[in-house]
């Protein structure tokens, strides 16, 4: 099996030279990384006419889960909703991480953006993270009228770990029969704890944005010593035997990243189950390229392509 890596997009390669890269995560390094704040949400909102609400909802075990609700100011008609789950390997980040991505859909479609602060591993383990996300989703569906949300046009979306959680929440909602989800957008999603794909092995042993070793740390933080048989498909969605009955799905990934093969496989299995999925593999894209360098040409193209897909999905879903 070759471990030769696909070449990076030339513009991204040049941009990446100024970024400090690492090959592994440790508890000590994680503690340091957690001290760096997300982009201040105020800077993302200062040029937008947005109403902001900060609320908490109860998790399954009674813990308080923060949600940030961002609505277009002055909107009166029921709006589509993007329910956002942030990235960070399941061990870092917060509800403001990568928030510039769904805010583009607030700008474009007048969507209400709701971002959830699920608990992180290793402090939270097992299904806790996905259960937290599902609890928030249930709450906004139950309070759709109050929030100005059209309950028939709720889209779950997330990047990296958040993409994996979005896939897990969608599986959970399907199996429980609630709430209704119009579409899922999975951006370079973290789907498979087994970490055995060709792309996983290609991005091992050298510093990178997200390496096989870092991925192992993230999954071990969530799952501990659980065996494969003890891991829930809601946590590691690639384990799901049945991908039928899912809402229309968008998956994108880079050709030069750890998650490439598990992501393309997931889309293929949605098709095999008779579902609808749109898959994009961005040539030369590394993990999270469009979030880290949105100014790059390939990043702008990837982000615009997602927005165009979402426009088609929302146009095909009649307003309530």
Commentary on this structure:
There is one protein chain. With 320 residues, this protein is α/β, with parallel strands linked by helices. The chain contains twelve helices and eight strands. It has a single domain, classed as Rossmann fold. Helix 4 crosses helix 12. The longest helix is centred in the C-terminal third of the chain and has 20 residues, at 297-316.
Set down the secondary structure blueprint.
Blueprint: H1 10-16, H2 27-33, H3 41-45, E1 50-58, E2 64-72, E3 79-85, H4 100-109, E4 112-116, H5 128-142, H6 144-147, E5 149-159, H7 161-176, E6 183-187, H8 198-202, H9 212-223, E7 248-254, H10 260-272, E8 277-282, H11 289-292, H12 297-316
Parallel strand pairs: 3-4, 3-5, 5-6, 6-7, 7-8
Antiparallel strand pairs: 1-2, 2-4
Helix pairs in contact: 4-12, 5-7
**Radius of gyration computed on alpha carbons:** 18 Å
Sequence of strands across the biggest β-sheet: 1-2-4-3-5-6-7-8
Low-confidence stretches: none
CATH architecture: 3-Layer(aba) Sandwich
Q: State the fourth-level CATH superfamily.
A: Alpha/Beta hydrolase fold, catalytic domain
Please bin the fraction of helical residues: 25-40%
What number of domains? 1
Average pLDDT number: 96
Provide the CATH topology: Rossmann fold
Tell me the β content. 15-25%
Mass-distribution shape: globular
Q: What class do helices, strands and sheet pairing give?
A: alpha/beta
CATH class: Alpha Beta
Quote the distance from N terminus to C terminus.
Answer: 52 Å
Q: What sequence of helices (H) and strands (E) makes up the elements?
A: HHHEEEHEHHEHEHHEHEHH
């Amino acid at each position: 099996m070759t471990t030769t890596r696909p070449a990076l997009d030339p513009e991204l390669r040049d941009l990446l030279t100024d970024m400090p890269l690492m090959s592994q995560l440790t508890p000590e390094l994680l503690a340091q990384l957690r001290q760096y704040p997300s982009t201040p949400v105020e800077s993302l909102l200062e040029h937008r006419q947005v109403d902001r609400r900060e609320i908490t909802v109860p998790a399954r075990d009674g813990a308080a889960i923060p949600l940030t609700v961002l609505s277009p100011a002055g909107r009166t008609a029921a709006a589509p909703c993007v329910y956002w789950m942030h990235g960070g390997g399941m061990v870092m980040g917060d509800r403001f991480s990568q928030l510039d991505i769904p805010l583009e859909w607030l700008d474009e479609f007048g969507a209400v953006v709701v971002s959830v602060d699920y608990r992180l591993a290793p402090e939270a383990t097992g299904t806790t993270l996905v259960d937290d996300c599902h609890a928030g989703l249930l709450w906004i569906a139950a309070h759709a009228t109050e929030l100005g949300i059209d309950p028939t046009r709720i889209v779950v979306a997330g990047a990296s770990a958040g993409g994996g959680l979005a896939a897990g929440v969608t599986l959970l909602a399907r199996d429980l029969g609630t709430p209704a989800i119009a579409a899922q957008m999975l951006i370079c999603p973290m789907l498979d704890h087994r970490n055995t794909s060709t792309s996983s092995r290609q991005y091992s042993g050298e510093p990178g944005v997200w390496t096989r070793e870092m991925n192992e740390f993230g999954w071990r933080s969530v799952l501990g010593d659980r065996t494969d048989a003890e891991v829930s498909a809601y946590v590691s969605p690639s384990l799901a035997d049945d991908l039928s009955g899912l809402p229309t799905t968008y998956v994108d990934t880079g050709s030069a990243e750890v998650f490439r093969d598990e992501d393309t496989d997931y889309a293929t299995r949605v098709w095999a189950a008779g579902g609808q999925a749109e898959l994009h593999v961005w040539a030369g894209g590394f993990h999270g390229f469009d979030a880290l360098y949105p100014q790059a040409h390939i990043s702008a193209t990837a982000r615009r392509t997602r927005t165009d897909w979402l426009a088609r999905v929302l146009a095909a879903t009649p307003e309530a």
